[in-house]
Write a structure and sequence with these properties.
The chain is about 45% helix and about 15% strand. It is an alpha/beta fold. The strands form 4 sheets. Strands 4, 5, 6, 9, 10 and 11 form a 6-stranded parallel beta sheet that branches. The termini are far apart.
Length: about 250
């Protein structure tokens, strides 16, 4: 009888191990590019790094009046930023886009006309991104592979379509909320006090106070962090993304 009990225990343990194997295999198969977390597709919000790099980003969808001021400030603090550009903005302000590129900043795709991607099919999303890419490439000679959806809106369809098109979806972890009449102090506090290593900071051009407060923001941040473009901050292979959108190297 003891012999039978021992064998049953072994069988139970073996069954548990066998049952766990498919789960382990599924997780391992997703480890190459983990966008799906608990059934939800997740883009990159921030990056876990051993150094103190951060990325400063701008969304360009409105006017171009403050571009020269922003570029001068970025040059002064030796900060190479990433500009996510709307296609219609690029068509309206090609000289501004050309200046951004000539100053050595990175350019990403922010849709062609700022449509709500969560209401579009995968095919329409890719077509819209392609149209924006074409405008940017015509002006700068460079084709972006980074993108950010209008208003940061996404669902599983959006993230999957972006990934399958060969692009990388970049969100943000620190929102300056610099639009809508935000004061200089409010923009500064949100940009500086909430930022830590590996963060992606969201700013906008064409606002009332962003260009004015940008020198103080960069002055404060450069004391603690190293500025990097998004491409320099993120990992391009052998990474995973957790449920908060934080990217980790494997």
């Amino acid at each position: 009888m003891k012999f039978i009990v021992i064998k049953l225990r072994h069988l139970i343990i073996a069954a548990l191990v066998i049952a766990a194997v498919p789960l382990i295999w599924i997780n391992a198969s997703r480890a190459v590019s983990v966008f799906r977390v608990n059934g939800r597709e997740v883009p990159i919000y921030s990056v876990e790094r051993a150094d103190n790099k951060i990325a400063v980003t701008f969304d360009c969808a409105w006017s171009d009046e403050d571009i020269d001021s922003i570029l001068d400030t970025l040059d002064k603090y030796n900060c190479k930023a990433t500009f996510f550009v709307v296609g219609t903005w690029a068509e309206k302000y090609p000289d501004a886009l050309r200046k951004i590129s000539e100053h050595g900043h990175e350019i990403g795709n922010h849709s062609y006309n700022h449509a709500d991607y969560t209401k579009l099919s995968a095919g329409d999303i890719v077509s819209d991104l392609d149209k924006c890419d074409s405008v940017i490439e015509t002006v700068t000679g460079l084709k972006p592979y980074l993108m950010r959806a209008p208003s940061g809106g996404y669902n599983n369809t959006v993230v999957t379509a972006v990934e399958k098109s060969g692009r990388m979806y970049i969100q943000w972890s620190v929102d300056s909320i610099d639009y809508g009449g935000a004061s200089e102090q409010e923009i500064y506090d949100r940009s500086v006090k909430k930022t830590s290593a590996g963060d992606i900071l969201l700013l906008h051009n064409g606002t009332e106070n962003t260009a004015k407060i940008l020198p103080k923001i960069l002055e404060a941040l450069e004391c603690q962090y190293e500025f990097a473009t998004v491409s320099e901050l993120i990992y391009h292979e052998n990474y995973i993304i957790d449920n908060t959108g934080r990217q980790f190297t494997k």
